[in-house]
Amino acid sequence: MDCWVKTDNDPGWWFPSVRLLRSFLLLLCFFGQVEAASYHLDGRDTDVIGATYRVTVKESQTLLDIARANDVGQDEIVLANPGVDRWLPEPGSQVLIPAQYVLPDAERKGLVLNLPEMRLYYFRTPHEVQTYPVSIGRMDWKTPLGKARIVRKRKNPAWHPPESVKKEAAAKGETVPDVVPAGPDNPLGEYALRLNLPGYLIHGTNKPWGVGMRVTHGCVRLLPEDIEQLFREVKVNTQVQIVNQPVKVGWLDGVLYLEVHPPVEEHLTARGDMLRYAKEVIYKELEKHPAILIGSRVKQAIREQNGVPVAISRITDEQPMPITNPLFRRGS
Length: 332
Fold this sequence. Notes:
Layout: E1 3-4, H1 18-31, E2 38-40, E3 48-50, E4 53-56, H2 63-69, H3 74-80, E5 94-97, E6 100-102, E7 110-114, E8 119-125, E9 128-137, E10 146-155, H4 163-171, E11 191-195, E12 201-203, E13 214-216, E14 220-222, H5 224-233, E15 239-243, E16 247-252, E17 255-260, H6 268-271, H7 274-288, E18 292-293, H8 295-304, E19 310-311, E20 313-314
Parallel strand pairs: 7-15, 9-13, 12-14
Antiparallel strand pairs: 1-4, 2-9, 3-6, 4-5, 7-8, 8-9, 9-14, 10-11, 10-15, 11-12, 16-17, 17-19, 18-20
Helix pairs in contact: 2-3
Organism: Thiolapillus brandeum
Active site: 203, 219
Domain L,D-TPase catalytic: 109-243
């Protein structure tokens, strides 16, 4: 695998730790796949982790192969590479790996799942975080919002399909057994973390290529290698926060970053106009920390909704404009 990093002077491509990035890329190029990295947070003003980079497509590779090798989800890599065929990317071409993330606006404790980006964050401590791509529930089997906790860990779990799944199968003329034992046909994979929400699990899968899409019956599905790592780390009673944040903002070295994802379908009406929603999220942050914004980048990020963080402010000696700027008035 050929790996290279864009290093021009655009702050949207600035990397917080070149040494960490080089080490990660060397491991990736040598082994082809690595466990999720741990990111150390220097303080509350460190809201952005990781870095984007590019890899070279090899013969017979699909975008899904590249996504799994780099621990990103299917929708993530497709959105970051518009116009690239997910099944037949051009061998020798460059593919962007969207491995930079603005942390969700949530307590930095335990597990945080942000539904629109289909990504799970595990805060080992308030100053160290790991992150994994996930699949979430389809629109008719939506994953619930709110706080929960892990109540049980199970290796090689059996699957007991609920009545709702059996009814869905019956409507298609299919049957589902009462119990699916551990093994290659078990959709839970080899590890499961049960939540105190009845019927909901964080688990592995026997169909890893679907990770990073809305394909589950409401549970949270991880890649086999990721759930194995998470299972080792997470303890019973760990807090789980499930949030719905298609727009995230955060600071890194005095620069404000904006990350925008397509909203989940059932919340399209509630979110209304994404531009207005994004302005309110930015407005909330600027009330605490004024900055000089780059308006064109704000609009570009909202238009593209590709999940790649964009630097939307610049470091300057100029005094930041007061928050009374009409661009950020409610209803503007």
